[in-house]
Amino acid sequence: MRAHPAVHTRDLTKHYGRLVALDGLDLTVAAGEVVGLLGPNGAGKSTTIRLLLGLARPTRGLARIFEVDAADVRAAHRLLAYVPADVALWPQLTGAEILDLLAATGPGVDAGYRDELVERFALDPSRPAGAYSTGNRQKVALVAAFATRAPLLVLDEPTSGLDPLMELQFRRAVGEARDNGQSVLLCSHQLAEVEAVCDRVAILRAGRLVDIAPVPQLRRLHRNKVTVRFTGSAPDLAGVPGVEAVEERDGLLRFTLAGPPAAALRALSGAEISTLTVREPSLEEIFLDYYGEQA
Ligand SMILES: Nc1ncnc2c1ncn2[C@@H]1O[C@H](COP(=O)(O)OP(=O)(O)OP(=O)(O)O)[C@@H](O)[C@H]1O
């Protein structure tokens, strides 16, 4: 295991004209750690990754990959493998040819493991990449990255084109990378995905780091949105554990529910309820509820 952190940023800041895309980010990913970067659209996730890859220059602050300045692209890219959100491949080459090309230019590859990943991701490497779907292009990039011995994997929304079975393969491969002592920085919109694979999650909103916490602590972000339509007198939810943000109007009751629903259901059971819907809020809603005042 390496002594230096895989990623270290201090006061990392990027302005585009008057727009502050990233504002004073302090982030450390330890060697062997899997860290998620979570945030709604425009939060600054891609900007962070572009700065770490040396694709953009910081307005202020520093970004290091294992103590190498991220702007020293030649040295830094020997230490990392990157999967972009939108994978572009050479259309006339087959998947196999591209995997060989990427293996020859990257920081070294475990060919046996790569073949295993091709099988597990159900990738047909004999087809030209021009005929691949978005998901298949993403699989080529993922297989190429996971098969490297790069000590840091930087993955930007890597599963947006994958179906649920392939998402499971992705999660397994991240676990194997961690077991190998590799570090992973995973940028995502999906709370469930980062919860499944990350040790810690950094939450960005409007260019600022609003929270960084080990995954078990994210459970506090989970709450369901409940809507109840009733006739007669309104159910009384005062003091019911887990119930918050109660709104009642015209026979409609809305509230958020965290934790086990038993007490809320007991409180509702005395009322004449005609419909009850429960849904998980989107990440954007969770962020608004939770971090709204800090933005
Ligand atoms: N090249 C650029 N020129 C001007 N503004 C930019 C540029 N790149 C990003 N931005 C702006 O910086 C802010 C952060 O964008 P960024 O792409 O980092 O967000 P993100 O968290 O990756 O969002 P998404 O989930 O939508 O990809 C946004 O307001 C975006 O419009």
UniProtKB/TrEMBL annotation:
GO cellular component, as recorded: plasma membrane
Entry membrane topology: Peripheral membrane protein
Domain ABC transporter: 7-231
InterPro entries per UniProt: AAA+_ATPase, ABC_transporter-like_ATP-bd, ABC_transporter_ATP-binding, DrrA1/2-like_C, P-loop_NTPase
Cellular compartments annotated: Cell membrane
One Gene Ontology biological process: response to antibiotic
Primary localization class, coarse: membrane
Highest rank taxon of the organism: Bacteria
Keywords: Antibiotic resistance, ATP-binding, Nucleotide-binding, Transport
CDD domains registered for this protein in UniProt: ABC_DR_subfamily_A (cd03230)
MF terms (GO), sorted A to Z: ATP binding; ATP hydrolysis activity
Family to which the UniProt record says this protein belongs: Belongs to the ABC transporter superfamily.
Protein name: ABC-2 type transport system ATP-binding protein
Species for this entry: Micromonospora marina
Lineage: Bacteria, Bacillati, Actinomycetota, Actinomycetes, Micromonosporales
